[in-house]
Predict the structure.
Amino acid sequence: MFKKSLAALAALSLATPAVADVLVDNIAGIRIDEDGEVDRFTGLWIDDDGRIKQVLDRRDKRPDGTTYSVDGEGRVVIPGLIDAHLHVMGIGFGALTLDLSGTRSLAEAQQAIADFAAANPGRQWIIGRGWNQETWGLGRFPTAAELDAAVADVPVVLERVDGHATWANTRAMELAGVTAQTKSPSGGRIERLAGSQMPSGVFVDAASELIYSRVPAPRPRERDLALQKAQDILLAMGITAAADMGTSLEDWQTFRRAGDEGRLKLRIMSYAAGVDAMEAIAGPGPTPWLYDDRLRLNGVKLYLDGALGSRGAWLKRPYADDPGNTGLPLQNPAQLRNLMSRAAMDNFQLAIHAIGDAANAEVLAAIDELAETYGGDRRWRIEHAQVIDPTDIAEFGKYGIIASMQPVHQTSDRLMAEARLGPDRLDGAYAWKTIADTGSRLAFGSDAPVESPDPFAGWAVAFTREDADGQPFGGWRPQDRVSREAALAGFSADAAYAGFADGRFGRLVAGERADFLILDRDPMLASADDLRDAKVLETWIGGERVYRRRAD
Amino acid sequence: MFKKSLAALAALSLATPAVADVLVDNIAGIRIDEDGEVDRFTGLWIDDDGRIKQVLDRRDKRPDGTTYSVDGEGRVVIPGLIDAHLHVMGIGFGALTLDLSGTRSLAEAQQAIADFAAANPGRQWIIGRGWNQETWGLGRFPTAAELDAAVADVPVVLERVDGHATWANTRAMELAGVTAQTKSPSGGRIERLAGSQMPSGVFVDAASELIYSRVPAPRPRERDLALQKAQDILLAMGITAAADMGTSLEDWQTFRRAGDEGRLKLRIMSYAAGVDAMEAIAGPGPTPWLYDDRLRLNGVKLYLDGALGSRGAWLKRPYADDPGNTGLPLQNPAQLRNLMSRAAMDNFQLAIHAIGDAANAEVLAAIDELAETYGGDRRWRIEHAQVIDPTDIAEFGKYGIIASMQPVHQTSDRLMAEARLGPDRLDGAYAWKTIADTGSRLAFGSDAPVESPDPFAGWAVAFTREDADGQPFGGWRPQDRVSREAALAGFSADAAYAGFADGRFGRLVAGERADFLILDRDPMLASADDLRDAKVLETWIGGERVYRRRAD
């Protein structure tokens, strides 16, 4: 089926005829029906507008004549997966950043830096991260001169693996105006060359800002590149649609350029980065669905608290490992309600970040108050909803509140969460099943680039609560696992519903867009381990093949 | 043909079937051919995508069968008119502003204000202009209390006819924080109530800013309304496309909302308000043509000088009526070239405001320098090009420079220009024909809302150089008249060419969009006076009837 090829297949070679019906036949199709049960089918008949005309059973008559046929060769087909919470541009910019975390010597790092510069001509700055002079066996910080030896003509700035130091080349220091006369700022230190006042090229803690403050905002062309990169990554992982959580005006313009030029393949449900961005992007209400259901500004992302790891999550009682601290809300009650009203009065959807139990209680209370004024189908979203006081959980069942949760966070956070919360406050932590049982709808996502956007990892965690190493055996608080089918719905139909996209995409049913994946295995039968290893062979969006896996 | 109706015809009632060909037959069609000659035709066969399929002569066979036919009843059809320089949102906001210039008493003004408030519910502020206590026979300024008597609950701010005083109601003064303690700013005066320190409600000169600085920027909904108003005005006048000179990001988002929602009828060729807006709107290069050729960000509008009336135009020698003053450039030579390069390097089109002969010489010199680096089809535009040193005029013939000129400005400015320039500097003033004879292309416009956008007024001026009163008889400097046909081209095909729209719209030829007008008279035979009175009976854009004149 696949030809060996060193070059990535060009987009054109993926194209299916745009003006004819398409029949994808001889497949082992899997979908989740309205009752949450697996339904199997063998063919998809797709209209020339990219919508499903008919889901075909073995017995159904196939269309004949002018239809373009694709032989699935018996392979597994599932709905395109949807990530209900990620950061599209963050994924793209992250992928465009030089990663030095694998380098084992200064020389190897220098080579990687030079290679990266050669592979990325025209960059205004080269940005990277991950270096560690200890793993290099250097026994000292590297110098600007050593970085100049790799790249001298373009400014380079590289963050140490722990984020607490920055390595810059001479060009970067020149642009930042850093000289022997520059004093270390409070909370930071400029490293100096031995026996000299000359900055050595490494800036510790707050001193890093001397360099980073001069890194220009990305240009539109770089944003376009980042979006392309993010799309490439997501399509290859089987993500056909995603909620972009915190879309800036610049992000939005990037999405629109891609849409205007026919480069937007991924479906993006956007949530503006605050109410000002919301108004600047969409004006007096949510945008229409644009580009054949590929882009819509649904609403606004608001933050009520921070994260558990940094003890910024707002808790009802102090942190178990920091008794004087409860975290704190980023908005007072009036501010939160004002922002929510400003969005809701113009029919924008609310997606509110709440991690701690106090934050979740406050958002639930605010929704309870506002739901009276702003009725109808609102689909209030709470993003993360990580720690809920069990006495508050029932509230999720009211007003059709959506819990937008990220299964992999549970495995990444487990030990940290136990430390932060203590043993007697875990009942409402990452409580997927408990929340779902209230009648709330679970929308699953990854929070990429904070975690990998790989949806198969999230899916496997969702029904096991075990990490990639199978720990803890039997699952952490396994009563909050969801079924394998419910997890698939959380990563498809329910994630679409959470973004007002039901009826458009998310299900393999007649009338919805033909977004689907061809896989190398049956995800309903695979072990959790095998599911994590599932390979996406092809990704189709709107009846068009947008990704095909290269032969290994 | 027309039914009497008090209500404006709703847009829906104008609709022609979208899925069938349309034949507009039995018309007295007029178009300008490639040689600038009038060509007459009798029918237009329009494709279902709104493009002209065939321009039909009396002898040509008509399509039959499924085509939707419109009987033109022998009426005159001309190409849709294109304004090469106006301000779309300015026209709309101007039309939404209360106009008191016709009121003859305070009581009449109060009634007009109250009526306006009632007709415009939901306005955050009521803004108006044109009052004059002298024509009211009041003998004193009006007061805030007298304004409160008309509207008290919404802040009201009204500019005096000469722009040198502002009348505010109590609510506006409260919002501005103006009290008895507020001091008059330098260059301005707060009027006070007799025998009191209380502000009376009138603010003179710089004091007006105390109020105006509190008027909020328009909300998106108000912008949408302004665009709708501007479209209504322009379509009724026979303008089917326009270059928007100085599009802000907010303007652009308004245009896009209209496009996304199918409300954009007018074709808009946008020139961003500076290079930052250009990048924010379009990113790394001009946008594609959007919405079936209804919107494109072509390039950027820059300013090199001011206007002749306020002596801001930059002249080579001092003003005849102000011997110490030559006006001045708003950019130095390096700044101008930097801005031009920043746009040209990303293939944005340049449209540079230059009024005085020094400004024009400088833009011509800058183009001469940049044209070497930025080759190809650039269509450098000089906006206004009002006063050119005769020794510089030949430069217009190089590099395909476009002179974007506004015929009506010539009649409005005539006496003022004679005063500013003196008798011996008029040879290159409003020198349409002389510029055209160099090989430059003339693109005609109105600069609305500075002047009325009525293209028939501009057309009549272009071949007469007489004002609406026929003054001066025979035309001012008649050697710079252009032919009636060339004037029509300047308001259609050449205005399209100036916006890179040739091949898309601007001509009634097969393959271009079917943008045309049905008129009540033959503009090629009418006297200039009669041409000014021409009535647009119908306006069609892209094969769709978008305006129909109500029966008188």
Q: What stands out?
A: The first strand of chain A starts at residue 22 and ends at 32. The interface with chain B takes residues 219-221, 223-224, 249-250, 253-254, 256-257, 260-261, 279-284, 287-288, 290 of chain A (CB under 8 Å). The radius of gyration of chain A is 25 Å.
